[in-house]
Backbone:
């Protein structure tokens, strides 16, 4: 019998699966692989280098989420820049960065934004607030990603060939279940939107395998307590009023058309990329690090020569070991 290969597309699912030891519970005929669902992990090295170069300006306060501080760029990380005396700060939300801008009018405050459809609407709302309050020293470095273009690439991939998807609950709260319907029908890959409790994930695996065996290529929402078919229309409206789709580069997947977000013309004054013209050093990929292959589900962390040796949570080489949603971090903490 052919092995059924399922991909969880969310980093939170990856961590929950590892913590609960779900892979050990599954029969040999079912394999779980992790996908490009960690926003920190899929941020391209060149985008990290750009943030680092902007942080070098004397009049800049660079802000971002905690995990992004430690992800290595070509030569150093934002955490390294902070250690060298540059003003780089950890924030818990984009609004924290806006408040920093309000009280530091002599500085230009840049928020390096990463995330999927879950995070970006809150940033859009903050940009609208900055516009209404006339805060002109606040800027967004948009490295946001849209999950569905990447999911479509994984659906048509043959290495690895995925039979079905455990879809992200957080993203689906915003987008709804409708966008998955096209992927399920076009590529013959059933999708189940799952919650994050162990029972949620196990139930979704059972449902997926049943759909695959019956060759029913549909979308099922098991996370009904939070996800509607149409999603959160208010959040979608706010997002679409501030951002528009753009081509962007994903670590491991390369350039994907219309898979990123950039500020619309009426909000372009808040674009850090336009405000700061920097020369990005030539990106040098860490040859031994296989984060790119891990993000595609083509390899597992234990196949990396650096895993648990040169690359650990204390001294990470790749972003998959840095992020709290990274596949390598999950494997190291719960499965190693």
Residues:
């Amino acid at each position: 019998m052919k092995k059924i290969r399922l991909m969880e597309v969310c980093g939170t699912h990856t961590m929950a699966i590892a913590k609960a030891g779900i892979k050990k519970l599954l029969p040999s005929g079912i394999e779980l692989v992790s996908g490009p669902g960690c926003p920190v992990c899929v941020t391209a090295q060149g985008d990290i280098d750009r943030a680092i170069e902007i942080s070098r300006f004397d009049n800049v306060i660079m802000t971002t989420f905690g995990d992004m501080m430690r992800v290595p760029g070509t030569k150093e990380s934002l955490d390294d820049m902070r250690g060298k005396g540059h003003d780089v700060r950890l924030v818990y939300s984009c609004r924290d960065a806006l408040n920093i801008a309000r009280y530091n009018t002599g500085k230009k405050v840049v928020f390096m934004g990463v995330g999927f459809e879950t995070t970006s609407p809150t940033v859009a709302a903050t940009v609208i607030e900055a516009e209404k309050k006339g805060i002109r020293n606040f800027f967004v470095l948009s490295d946001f990603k849209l999950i569905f273009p990447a999911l479509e690439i994984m659906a048509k991939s043959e290495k690895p060939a995925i039979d079905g998807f455990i879809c992200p609950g957080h993203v689906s709260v915003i987008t709804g279940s409708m966008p998955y319907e096209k992927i399920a029908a076009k590529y013959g890959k059933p999708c189940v939107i799952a919650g994050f409790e162990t029972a949620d994930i196990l139930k979704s695996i059972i449902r997926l395998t049943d759909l695959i065996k019956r060759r029913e290529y549909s979308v099922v929402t098991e996370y009904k307590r939070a996800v509607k078919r149409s999603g959160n229309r208010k959040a979608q409206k706010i997002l679409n009023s501030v951002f528009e789709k753009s081509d962007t580069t994903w670590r491991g997947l390369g350039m994907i058309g219309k898979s990123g977000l950039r500020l619309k013309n009426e909000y372009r004054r808040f674009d850090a990329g336009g405000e700061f013209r920097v020369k990005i050093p030539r990106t040098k990929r860490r040859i031994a690090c296989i984060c790119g292959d891990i993000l595609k589900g083509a390899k597992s962390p234990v196949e990396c020569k650096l895993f648990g040796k040169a690359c650990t949570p204390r001294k990470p080489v790749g972003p998959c070991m840095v992020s709290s949603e990274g596949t390598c971090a999950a494997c190291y903490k719960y499965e190693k």
Residues 198-213 form the longest helix (16 residues). The mean pLDDT is 96. The chain is about 40% helix and 20% strand.
